[in-house]
């Protein structure tokens, strides 16, 4: 599967609520859901089950397509999908994410392990069944402020830093950015699981800048945030959202 990797980034919450001013959207009734996201022309559409969980995702780009279904079992989440790339025969995959008693993902059949602190935030992502190669996540005042890669147990210069406004967290404002930048979480199913809280608690505020570069937000006619824009190095990234409301 061909994916674009730029740097590091982050996580999320539930895909419900029309309001951008709710600190915890999981407490609201399911009035609105994100139906699709456009990440620089990469369209990701979502289907929900009767409980409001993401049950399927569909990805379309000019040269790539992918579909996946998500099955929520006791103690595990099973994802089955397929993909097709222009010039390739494509393929299929099955990913299994193991859950602890707090419904946090602790490991996957891809050989990765996840650790959380006492406050419920994800603090380490170990790669390929190793203890020396991992990503470390640092928080301040309920917000993720730093991600750093470690190789052979030693810190590298692969770092991303985040600053926040005083505004409450906005749906997808971190994981949508992350989809364009992250090597911690890259797959489409992981992005959906981040948004639903399976990788721990989310930052409480809206991200304001990445490595010193500002993130700007646009609103629709109802005053709801409809898109965000940011730069990574010299590349401009635009992420827009569509919602389906009752």
Q: What is the CA-based Rg, rounded?
A: 17 Å
SSE order = EEEEEEEEEEEEHHEEEEE
In one word, what is the shape? globular
Q: Decide which structural class fits the backbone.
A: mainly beta
Task: Tell me the total number of β-strands.
Answer: 17
Helix proportion:
under 10%
Query: How far do the termini sit from each other?
Result: 36 Å
On the 0 to 100 scale, the average pLDDT is: 82
Number of helices: 2
- Major sheet summary line: 10 strands, antiparallel
How much strand content do the residues show? Answer: over 45%
Spatial order of the strands in the main sheet? 7-6-5-4-3-2-1-17-16-15
Low-pLDDT stretches are: 1-30
What's the short version?
By secondary structure, the chain is mainly beta. It is built from two helices and 17 strands.
Explain this structure.
This protein is mainly beta and 246 residues long. 6% of the residues lie in helices and 51% in strands. The protein is built from 2 helices and 17 strands. The N and C termini lie far apart (36 Å).
Please outline the helices and strands.
Layout: E1 32-39, E2 42-48, E3 54-60, E4 64-73, E5 76-85, E6 91-99, E7 105-108, E8 113-116, E9 122-126, E10 134-140, E11 143-151, E12 154-168, H1 175-181, H2 188-195, E13 205-210, E14 213-214, E15 216-219, E16 225-232, E17 235-245
Helix pairs in contact: 1-2
């Amino acid at each position: 599967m061909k994916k674009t990797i730029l740097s590091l980034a982050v996580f999320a919450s539930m895909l419900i609520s029309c309001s951008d001013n709710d600190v915890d959207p999981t407490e609201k009734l399911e009035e609105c859901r994100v139906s699709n996201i456009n990440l620089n022309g990469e369209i990701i559409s979502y289907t929900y089950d009767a409980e409001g969980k993401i049950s399927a995702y569909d990805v379309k780009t000019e040269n790539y397509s992918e579909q996946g279904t998500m099955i929520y079992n006791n103690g595990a989440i099973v994802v089955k999908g397929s993909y097709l790339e222009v010039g390739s025969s494509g393929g299929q995959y099955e990913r299994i994410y193991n859950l602890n008693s707090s419904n946090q993902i602790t490991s996957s059949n891809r050989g990765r392990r996840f650790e959380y602190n006492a406050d419920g935030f994800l603090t380490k992502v170990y790669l390929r069944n190793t203890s020396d190669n991992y990503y470390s996540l640092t928080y301040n005042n309920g917000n993720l402020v730093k991600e750093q890669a470690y190789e052979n147990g030693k810190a590298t210069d692969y770092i991303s830093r985040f600053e926040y406004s005083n505004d409450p967290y906005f749906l997808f404002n971190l994981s949508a950015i992350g989809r364009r930048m992250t090597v911690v979480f890259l797959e489409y199913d992981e992005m959906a699981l981040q948004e639903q809280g399976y990788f721990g608690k989310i930052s409480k505020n809206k991200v304001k800048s990445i490595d010193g570069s500002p993130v700007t937000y646009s609103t629709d006619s109802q005053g709801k945030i409809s898109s965000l824009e940011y730069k990574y190095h010299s590349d401009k990234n635009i992420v827009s959202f569509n919602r389906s409301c009752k």
